[in-house]
């Protein structure tokens, strides 16, 4: 016997889809933060060679990510979150990104409300100890543009003027030839590393929206060479982040293709 579909069920499904679409940008940030950070420790323990960085993701189709919750997906914060325990990460994400009440988090994770409050406070303290006050989006792009311009022309003096004395450069290459396998520390050393002429020869930089902020994709003859971004405070650039690992570059290009195919972020029919 044919049964007419229930209008209530259809309405409920439509409402659920509408709710998902409305919060998709926020969910994207949370998913990236949890999944990248959760995988990082395992990867580094088992097989990774050299510094590990989270995977860059194209966010150009989601301007709201940068405007509203950029801190949820920025590479620099994802790297810091790796240092939290799994419970601290979960509690922090649920509280700071999803804005769940302490009592709700306690029920979900089977913890006491008092314990949840302590964990949130401890996680915030850990993150504040590691982070500096960031510049706004316009200043971040200006500093990154000046960095790329100086690096391409070999202007070491101009490059050093953009960096803080304690700047650190991290290169994620998973052992590929020519990629630094340890962090590079200090203004002079980072500047000299960044103007490496063979790398920039005939290379073309492209400014992209990645992980909620400005990044730079570097190509040569249409082939991806690296992804670059930086963390900066009012004192200048204090962290330079390079991704050279072929798998991560390929995944970033895939994310760009996805954004081009689905500019609203959701495939047709969903």
TrEMBL record:
Residues 76-127 form the RNA polymerase sigma factor 70 region 4 type domain. InterPro entries: ECF_Sigma-70_Domain, NTF2-like_dom_sf, RNA_pol_sigma70_r4_t2, RNA_pol_sigma_r3/r4-like, WH-like_DNA-bd_sf. SUPFAM superfamilies: NTF2-like (SSF54427), Sigma3 and sigma4 domains of RNA polymerase sigma factors (SSF88659). It comes from the Bacteria. Keywords: Sigma factor, Transcription, Transcription regulation. PANTHER family: ECF RNA POLYMERASE SIGMA FACTOR SIGJ, SIGMA 19 FACTOR. Belongs to the sigma-70 factor family. ECF subfamily. This is Sigma factor-like helix-turn-helix DNA-binding protein. It comes from Streptomyces hokutonensis.
């Amino acid at each position: 016997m044919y049964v007419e579909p229930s209008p209530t069920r259809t309405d409920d499904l439509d409402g659920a889809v509408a709710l998902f679409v409305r919060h998709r940008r926020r969910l994207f940030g949370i998913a990236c933060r949890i999944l990248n950070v959760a995988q990082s420790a395992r990867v580094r323990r088992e097989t990774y060679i050299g510094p590990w960085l989270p995977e860059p993701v194209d966010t150009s189709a989601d301007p709201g990510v940068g405007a509203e919750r950029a801190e949820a997906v920025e590479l620099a914060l994802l790297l810091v979150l790796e240092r939290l325990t799994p419970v601290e990460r979960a509690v922090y994400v649920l509280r700071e990104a999803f804005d769940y009440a302490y009592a709700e988090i306690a029920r979900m994770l089977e913890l006491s409300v008092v314990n949840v409050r302590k964990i949130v406070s401890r996680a915030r303290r850990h993150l504040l100890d590691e982070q500096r006050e960031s510049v706004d989006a316009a200043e971040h792009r200006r500093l990154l543009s000046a960095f790329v311009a100086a690096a391409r022309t070999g202007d070491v003096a101009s490059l050093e003027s953009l960096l803080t004395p304690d700047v650190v450069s991290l290169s994620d290459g998973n052992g590929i030839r020519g990629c630094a396998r340890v962090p590079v520390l200090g203004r002079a050393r980072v500047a000299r590393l960044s103007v490496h002429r063979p790398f920039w020869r005939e290379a073309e930089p492209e400014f992209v929206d990645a992980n909620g902020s400005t990044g730079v994709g570097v190509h040569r003859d249409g082939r991806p060479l690296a992804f670059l971004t930086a963390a900066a405070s009012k004192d200048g650039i204090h962290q330079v982040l390079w991704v050279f690992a072929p798998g991560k570059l390929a995944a970033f290009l895939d994310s760009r293709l996805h954004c081009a195919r689905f500019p609203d972020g959701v495939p047709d029919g969903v």
